């Protein structure tokens, strides 16, 4: 009941004034150190120090169906020993010493004897699950599922059904964050409730774009992304789609006019984009940036500081996606989408470099307009040769293809006679690439840059340095060394 009151009205309602004698109330201590709440980070190892003999005694009771004798039991000690007992059960189960049926019997005894034991057990399991990788969460989540499922036996305690209804309300809120992170659905058997994967955090009658903007502004004002905000962002990502999500957040970034706000927004957006970094990067580099760089009406939005901030964000996302992509540890969702992505991005960026892609045909659709860049599709293959081609990088991969075409577009901008904010954006983008470059690594995104682009880059004030030339060229290739030497000689 105290847990339900704390969750409904806030923990401040429960907390009392310190006693003159210095005595600490057990529930207050447990609530502050062990009870999962939104935005609270718990250490599962920070629990109460349990007496091993009492833990062993508790395990004996849980393995049998005998009732605990109330005269011999101190309930605060039982609550303190429960996490240690659950850890022992979990370790034994993971090492094959206990079967699923034996674990089910123990969890039935926990929730059938007294509801507070189940609450203490689930509270520790929630904190424990947060510290585990996705592959290690299966058995702890199964234990949570077993504990939240009520008993339907005839020998349950008096008023059990009434108590378990309150218990499930408490456990639902405790588990909400973990279930959101693991995309797990648990049936909380309370009145008129079906399977709830997590709490619905989106307002019912509010447009999702307004919710997105409000949530972004709240996060920007606070300077950090809390648990509730990240859940709202994830719900909006699934509801609106990757392009809608990324495009609207980029628009919000480009509205900022203060330098410190822009750079703070970059750090926050990079963390939010980790919800689906691979797909968001494909959209950002393959659709949003080309749209901004090729439309003269949007060039004003790329002024400093928002334009510089967007360049920084683009490089960070590119490097994050490329480094994780090369490790070959794609998620199941990414593997499922992989074939679809290949078809989509090959259609946008064809494999035959002698033919202009849809993007490049768009750039050259109006040759009379000086604000529209000319297509590099007419260039010979050797003029757009990159280190990635010499290293035999798989260009059927969507991310590799998008990076190659983005650098081809950048090369076109640099060689164009039309200068503007988009040219300055390219300089910021390349400066950020150089700043983030891992020296001596063949896995840099700069390997997708055409060799002919080096001579254009050294004409920019911020990049006309021998050190920069050596950083952006692949010195492991003979052609790279020749291009670097020629560019340095021209400085």
Structure characteristics:
two-stranded antiparallel sheet, 2 strands, single chain, elongated, 491 residues, mainly alpha
Question: Can you tell me about this structure?
Answer:
With about 500 residues, the chain is an all-alpha fold. It contains 22 helices and two strands. Strands 1-2 form a two-stranded antiparallel ribbon. A hairpin with a 7-residue loop joins strand 1 and strand 2 (about 195). Helix 10 crosses helix 11 (about 240-255). The model is unreliable at about 185-200 and about 330-385 (pLDDT under 50).
Topology:
Layout lengths: L1 H8 L16 H9 L17 H12 L11 H20 L5 H14 L1 H16 L7 H11 L11 H23 L3 E2 L7 E2 L11 H15 L4 H14 L1 H14 L3 H15 L3 H18 L11 H21 L5 H17 L9 H6 L23 H4 L7 H18 L5 H16 L16 H5 L8 H7 L5 H12 L2
Antiparallel strand pairs: 1-2
Helix pairs in contact: 3-4, 4-6, 5-6, 5-7, 6-7, 6-8, 9-10, 9-11, 10-11, 11-12, 11-13, 11-14, 12-14, 13-14, 13-18, 14-19
What's the shape?
A: elongated
Order of helical and strand elements: HHHHHHHHEEHHHHHHHHHHHHHH
Extended strand count: 2
* Average pLDDT taken over every residue: 76
Per DSSP, the total helix count is 22
- Strand-residue proportion: under 5%
Main sheet: strands, sense, barrel: 2 strands, antiparallel
Which spans have pLDDT < 50 for at least 5 consecutive residues?
187-199, 329-383
Structural class: mainly alpha
Specify Rg, calculated over alpha carbons.
29 Å
Distance between the termini: 76 Å
Helical content (DSSP H or I, runs of 4+): 55-70%
Biggest β-sheet: strands ordered side by side in the sheet: 1-2
């Amino acid at each position: 009941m105290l847990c339900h009151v704390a969750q409904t009205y806030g923990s401040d309602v429960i907390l009392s004034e310190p006693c003159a004698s210095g005595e600490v109330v057990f529930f207050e201590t447990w609530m502050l150190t062990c009870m999962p709440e939104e935005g609270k980070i718990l250490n599962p190892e920070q629990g109460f120090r349990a007496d091993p003999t009492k833990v062993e005694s508790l395990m004996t009771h849980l393995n049998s169906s005998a009732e605990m004798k109330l005269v011999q039991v101190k309930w605060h000690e039982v609550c303190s020993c429960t996490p240690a007992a659950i850890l022992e059960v979990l370790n034994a189960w993971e090492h094959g010493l206990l079967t699923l049926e034996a674990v089910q019997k123990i969890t039935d005894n926990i929730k059938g004897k007294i509801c507070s034991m189940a609450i203490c057990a689930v509270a520790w399991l929630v904190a424990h699950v947060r510290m585990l990788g996705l592959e290690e969460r299966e058995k702890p989540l199964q234990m949570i599922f077993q504990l939240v499922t009520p008993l339907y036996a005839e020998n349950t305690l008096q008023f059990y059904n009434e108590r378990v209804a309150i218990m499930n309300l408490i456990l639902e809120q405790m588990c909400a964050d973990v279930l959101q992170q693991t995309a797990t659905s648990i049936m909380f058997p309370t009145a008129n409730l079906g399977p709830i994967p997590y709490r619905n955090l989106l307002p019912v009658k509010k447009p999702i774009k307004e919710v997105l903007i409000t949530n972004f502004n709240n996060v920007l004002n606070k300077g950090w992304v809390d648990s509730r905000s990240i859940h709202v962002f994830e719900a909006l990502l699934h509801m609106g789609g990757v392009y809608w999500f990324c495009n609207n957040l980029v628009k919000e970034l480009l509205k900022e006019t203060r330098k410190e706000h822009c750079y703070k927004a970059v750090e926050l957006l990079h963390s939010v984009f980790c919800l689906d970094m691979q797909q968001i990067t494909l959209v950002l580099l393959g659709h949003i940036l080309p749209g901004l760089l090729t439309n003269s009406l949007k060039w004003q939005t790329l002024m400093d500081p928002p334009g510089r901030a967007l360049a920084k964000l683009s490089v960070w996302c590119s490097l994050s996606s490329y480094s994780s992509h090369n490790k070959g540890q794609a998620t199941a969702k990414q593997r499922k989408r992989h074939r679809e992505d290949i078809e989509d991005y090959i259609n946008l960026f064809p494999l035959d470099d002698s033919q202009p892609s849809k993007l490049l045909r768009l750039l050259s659709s109006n040759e009379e307009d000086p604000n529209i860049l000319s297509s590099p599709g007419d260039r010979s293959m050797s003029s757009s040769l990159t280190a990635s081609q010499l290293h035999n990088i798989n260009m059927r991969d969507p991310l590799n293809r998008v990076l190659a075409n983005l650098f081809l577009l950048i090369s076109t901008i640099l060689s164009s006679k039309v200068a503007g904010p988009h040219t300055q954006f390219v300089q910021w983008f390349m400066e950020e690439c150089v700043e983030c470059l891992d020296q001596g690594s063949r896995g840099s995104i700069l390997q997708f840059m055409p060799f002919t682009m080096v001579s254009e880059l050294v004409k920019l004030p911020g990049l006309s340095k021998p050190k920069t030339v050596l950083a952006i060229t692949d010195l492991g290739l003979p052609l790279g060394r020749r291009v670097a030497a020629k560019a340095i000689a021209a400085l």
